[in-house]
């Protein structure tokens, strides 16, 4: 080890390394709540110091400029990581950097994430490094940088080798334990090998259901098989819709009056969890159309390279359906220019076709979207006897700020200009547009001949934008503290006029189960294996979630388990009450079964996306 004497502290390299250490330490405290001096010194710091030392050696004529730029880049990187973590509750990786061009999806929310103290990350850039340069420029020598580079390089290499010996199940937890840079190396390595944990052994439907706690029954033998045969299919993926909004009133007003009215002709599932990964809305589309888990750390659409994959769309087309998808956004956003052809849609309508009118947030208002669908349907029905229409709403997207003329709720004063109040207004607006769309289906004479599946893509209320005041308002609406159950459960409506009369199902489900449930109602069997199952038939389930819960977490009929994360230890909750429990009955078995299911899903996805 290199000893630092009092004279050594006079040397600019030592001063720069001390400043860098303070910066890295602050990063660890803010992001990981890690206050261990020696952990930061031995695990996190060496690789960052190694890079700095190497820069000093490489840029001999522009050394100070290289030091300053390195400091600036680290400041920007750390701010991005801090903001990202506050919103998504997970630490970003280089995967997420690839998506920076898509940051407009939460652009309006960034202002809600920051704190004035965050800009202390730039203190060394604007003050300390320039001061060291000013006072030490005449006596500056970077000859010793080679010794520092070798020392830190050796320590960093040792820590990196150690990191590779551990499984990367959860990115945030791994980064806390083994270093942020090391976590990127391990992710890059595993990504170069393909899906990190993909099983290579075939698993039958019987084995899959056994892992979930069910006895397998062939789909054709389910009581719901084919009861909605040959009907038109409409799937409405509702942006940021959470289950607790259904049948809820504020100031005597229903948040979703039109959706509530649909209950009379629907089967309603109130216990279905989001399962998206880093791809968010696009991952919800993936789950709906493949019944496979998303990739997790990388948006699943990034794994597509133009190959045709088995999907709900292709299966419906084989059974006589035309297929159209509608989303009033840029088709390159979340690489839907690759996703939609891979899924097999006949008609693809995005911002290129849907008029940019009545813009709210970062796209046309939902009323413009549904009006466009109304115009296309009659034309399509002249060509196709049965139509499948996939409709992705946009307006109820964070930060949920609605023009005053579109605020249909008369909210109490304490809800106004709050994140929760804005959210309710945006949901109410989209609900109004869906109500009008249902009327239009009736006017076209196809409502009674249709299956309409409506579901939320993911939560809207999460992360730093939800303030203490928002939490108080949510408690007022819910009657209890806002929990992960409230956050992660999305409503699912199967509206089938003449068949369902308001039945409510509380069977545990995930978005991975929506496709097999729909196909069962239609009496259609998919050509390839699905990970999900028919929610009408199976009572038990075992769900995993990537990205928004630590790796190794699971949701079962009685238990909600969160694996250890960057900031929190492992926790076990009673799923019905969301109270913490010490019941570890079959805990390890459930963890292993969940990972086995997800690994097998990865294997199927890898086979399909690589065209094998």
UniProtKB/TrEMBL annotation:
<comment type="similarity">
    <text>Belongs to the LTA synthase family.</text>
</comment>
<dbReference type="InterPro" id="IPR000917">
    <property type="entry name" value="Sulfatase_N"/>
</dbReference>
<dbReference type="InterPro" id="IPR017850">
    <property type="entry name" value="Alkaline_phosphatase_core_sf"/>
</dbReference>
<dbReference type="InterPro" id="IPR012160">
    <property type="entry name" value="LtaS-like"/>
</dbReference>
<feature type="transmembrane region" description="Helical">
    <location>
        <begin position="12"/>
        <end position="31"/>
    </location>
</feature>
<keyword id="KW-0812">Transmembrane</keyword>
<comment type="pathway">
    <text>Cell wall biogenesis; lipoteichoic acid biosynthesis.</text>
</comment>
<dbReference type="GO" id="GO:0016740">
    <property type="term" value="F:transferase activity"/>
</dbReference>
<feature type="transmembrane region" description="Helical">
    <location>
        <begin position="65"/>
        <end position="85"/>
    </location>
</feature>
<feature type="transmembrane region" description="Helical">
    <location>
        <begin position="37"/>
        <end position="58"/>
    </location>
</feature>
<keyword id="KW-0472">Membrane</keyword>
<protein>
    <submittedName>
        <fullName>LTA synthase family protein</fullName>
        <ecNumber>2.7.8.-</ecNumber>
    </submittedName>
</protein>
<feature type="transmembrane region" description="Helical">
    <location>
        <begin position="148"/>
        <end position="168"/>
    </location>
</feature>
<keyword id="KW-1003">Cell membrane</keyword>
<keyword id="KW-1133">Transmembrane helix</keyword>
<keyword id="KW-0808">Transferase</keyword>
<feature type="transmembrane region" description="Helical">
    <location>
        <begin position="119"/>
        <end position="136"/>
    </location>
</feature>
<dbReference type="Pfam" id="PF00884">
    <property type="entry name" value="Sulfatase"/>
</dbReference>
<dbReference type="InterPro" id="IPR050448">
    <property type="entry name" value="OpgB/LTA_synthase_biosynth"/>
</dbReference>
<feature type="domain" description="Sulfatase N-terminal">
    <location>
        <begin position="232"/>
        <end position="524"/>
    </location>
</feature>
């Amino acid at each position: 080890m290199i000893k630092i004497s009092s004279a050594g502290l006079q040397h600019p390299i030592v001063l720069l390394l001390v400043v860098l250490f303070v910066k890295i330490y602050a990063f660890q405290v803010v992001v990981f709540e890690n206050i261990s001096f020696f952990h930061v010194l031995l695990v996190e710091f060496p690789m960052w110091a190694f890079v700095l030392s190497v820069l000093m050696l490489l840029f001999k004529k522009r050394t100070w400029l290289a030091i300053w730029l390195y400091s600036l880049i680290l400041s920007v990187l750390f701010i991005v990581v801090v903001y990202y973590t506050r919103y998504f509750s997970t630490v970003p990786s280089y995967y997420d950097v690839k998506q920076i061009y898509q940051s407009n999806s939460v652009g309006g929310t960034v202002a809600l994430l920051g704190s004035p103290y965050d800009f202390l990350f730039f203190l060394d850039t604007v003050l300390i490094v320039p001061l060291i340069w000013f006072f030490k420029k005449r006596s500056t020598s970077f000859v010793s940088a080679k010794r520092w580079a070798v020392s830190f390089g050796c320590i960093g290499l040792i820590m990196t080798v150690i990191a590779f010996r551990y499984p990367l199940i959860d990115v945030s937890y791994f980064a806390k334990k083994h270093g942020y840079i090391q976590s990127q190396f391990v992710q890059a390595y595993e990504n170069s090998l393909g899906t990190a944990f993909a099983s290579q052994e075939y698993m039958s439907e019987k084995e899959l259901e056994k892992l979930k706690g069910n006895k397998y029954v062939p789909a054709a033998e389910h009581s719901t098989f084919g009861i909605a045969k040959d009907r038109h299919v409409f799937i409405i993926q509702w942006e940021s819709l959470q289950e607790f909004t259904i049948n809820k009133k504020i100031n005597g007003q229903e948040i979703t009056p039109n959706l509530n009215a649909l209950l009379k002709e629907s089967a309603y599932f109130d216990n279905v969890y989001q399962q998206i990964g880093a791809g968010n809305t696009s991952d919800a589309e993936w789950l709906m159309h493949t019944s496979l888990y998303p990739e997790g750390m990388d948006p699943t659409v990034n794994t597509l390279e133009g190959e045709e994959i088995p999907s709900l769309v292709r299966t419906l087309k084989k059974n006589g359906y035309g297929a159209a998808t509608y989303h009033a956004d840029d088709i390159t956003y979340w690489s839907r220019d690759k996703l939609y052809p891979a899924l097999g849609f006949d008609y693809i309508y995005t911002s290129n076709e849907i008029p940019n009118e009545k813009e709210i947030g970062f796209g046309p208002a939902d009323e413009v979207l549904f009006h466009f669908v109304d115009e296309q349907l009659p034309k399509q029905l002249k060509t196709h006897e049965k139509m499948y229409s996939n409709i992705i709403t946009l307006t109820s997207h964070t930060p949920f700020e609605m023009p005053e003329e579109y605020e249909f709720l008369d909210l109490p004063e304490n809800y106004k200009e709050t994140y929760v109040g804005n959210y309710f207004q945006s949901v109410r607006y989209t609900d109004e547009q869906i109500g009008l769309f249902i009327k239009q289906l009736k006017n076209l004479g196809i409502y009674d001949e249709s299956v309409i599946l409506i579901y939320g893509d993911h939560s809207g209320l999460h992360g730093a934008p939800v303030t203490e005041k928002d939490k108080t308002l949510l408690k007022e609406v819910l009657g209890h503290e806002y929990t992960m159950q409230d956050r992660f459960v999305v409503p699912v409506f199967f509206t089938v006029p003449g068949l369902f009369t308001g039945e409510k199902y509380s069977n545990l489900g995930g978005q991975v189960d929506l496709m097999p449930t729909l196909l069962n109602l239609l009496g259609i069997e998919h050509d390839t294996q699905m990970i999900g199952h028919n929610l009408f038939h199976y009572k038990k389930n075992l769900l995993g979630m990537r990205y928004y819960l630590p790796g190794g977490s699971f949701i079962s009929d009685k238990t909600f388990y969160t694996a250890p994360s960057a900031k929190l230890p492992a926790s076990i909750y009673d799923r019905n009450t969301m109270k913490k429990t010490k019941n570890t009955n079959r805990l390890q078995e459930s963890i292993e079964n969940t990972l086995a299911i997800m690994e097998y899903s990865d294997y199927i996805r890898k086979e399909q996306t690589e065209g094998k």
